[in-house]
Amino acid sequence: MTISNYYDLDSIRQTVERGGHRGAVGGMWEEVGLLTFRYLVAKGLRPEMKVLDVGCGCLRVGIHLVDFLDSGNYFGIDLSEDLLEAGYQHELVPLGLQTKVPRGNLLCDGEFAFDRLPTDHHFDVAVAQSLFTHLPLNHIRLCMTNLTPVMVPGGSFHATLFHCPDDAEWQRPLLHDRGGITTHPARDPYHYRAADFRHAIHGLPWSVTEPADWEHPRDQAIVTFERLRSAPASARTPNLG
Ligand SMILES: C[S@@+](CC[C@H](N)C(=O)[O-])C[C@H]1O[C@@H](n2cnc3c(N)ncnc32)[C@H](O)[C@@H]1O
Q1: Does the C-beta of 129 come closer than 6 Å to ligand 1?
Q2: Distance CA 25, CA 29 (A)
Q3: What per-residue confidence (pLDDT) applies to 234?
Q4: Domain architecture of the chain: domains with CATH
Q5: How confident is the model at residue 182, as a pLDDT?
Q6: Pair type for strands 221-227 and 151-163
Q7: Low-confidence spans in the chain with pLDDT less than 50
Q8: Whose CA is nearest to atom 16 of ligand 1?
Q9: What is the pLDDT of residue 14?
């Protein structure tokens, strides 16, 4: 069993070659793209900010961000070069937005190597729409670790998840009434408790909100991680000298 179907890059390539890139990232192209974009604006996004779209796919959210942000301020990273290329050629170019995004701002990488992005590495805002829903917890922890040095203190990272409430049995499949998706403890699509995300940032200079319902059509909740100036005192090694 693989981490998720997104790791079957040949299958993703075939879908993209058939013109199915929008479906490959979950469809609901306008609905989810606009929902996410409007959420970020409501949370204070401004055109002069630098934004990192983690697991950006073929730019369902990205096209709105590129349109809104000042030129050069949008960066995306994704496991699939085919999805990135489809997003650039088949979504950005027809909208005339490719002039606002150097092609090098879209990086193919599956290990959260944000230091490979061509920037001075300080993002004000990051977003991950429908990414953690497809990843195991250690990947999320790696993502948070590697995001730490590339975010400005006070920067925010908004990420969606399938939420398993504390009164539900985490170890069993969970049916989400809105959207009708069944999620799982240890296979894609994954669900998480709020405590799992607190665990993922333990010892790192991040805080995280409780999962919130934001009327996502597939019942994904959203959390906001805030980049703190330093690791919380409880996570530091005590000075015994
Ligand atoms: C459901 S799609 C969402 C894409 C985009 N965020 C959107 O909302 O349209 C999930 C995306 O995560 C990407 N992905 C999965 N694992 C990844 C990893 N380890 N690093 C970067 N991207 C990853 C997939 O290639 C895919 O594009």
Answers
A1: yes
A2: 9
A3: 61
A4: 5-230 (3.40.50.150)
A5: 98
A6: antiparallel
A7: none
A8: 79
A9: 98
Tens digits of per-residue pLDDT, 95-146?
A: 999 999 999 999 999 999 999 999 876 999 999 999 999 999 999 999 999 9
Q: 52 to each of 73, 157, 193, 202, how far by Cα in Å?
A: 9, 9, 25, 22
Is the CB of 61 within 6 Å of ligand 1? yes
One-letter amino acid identity for 76?
A: G
Span from the CA of 48 to the centroid of ligand 1 (angstroms): 25
104 secondary structure, DSSP code: G
Alpha-carbon span 94 to 126, nearest angstrom: 25
Tokens of 199: 């665990």
For residues 43-73, one letter each, b for 16 or more C-beta atoms within 10 angstroms of the residue's C-beta and e for the rest, the string is eebeeebbbbbbbbbbbbbbbbbbebbeeeb
Distance CA 162, CA 134 (A): 10
Q: How far is the CA of 135 from the centre of ligand 1 (A)?
A: 9
The residue nearest atom 12 of ligand 1, judged by CA position, is 55
pLDDT at 91: 98
- Tokens linked to 191: 């669900």
Q: Whose CA is nearest to atom 7 of ligand 1?
A: 60
Is the CB of 56 within 6 Å of ligand 1?
A: yes
Biggest CA–CA distance in the chain, Å, is: 65
What spacing in Å lies between the alpha carbon of 130 and ligand 1's midpoint? 7
User: Could you tell me which residues come within 8 angstroms of residue 38 by beta carbon, excluding any fewer than 6 positions away?
Assistant: none
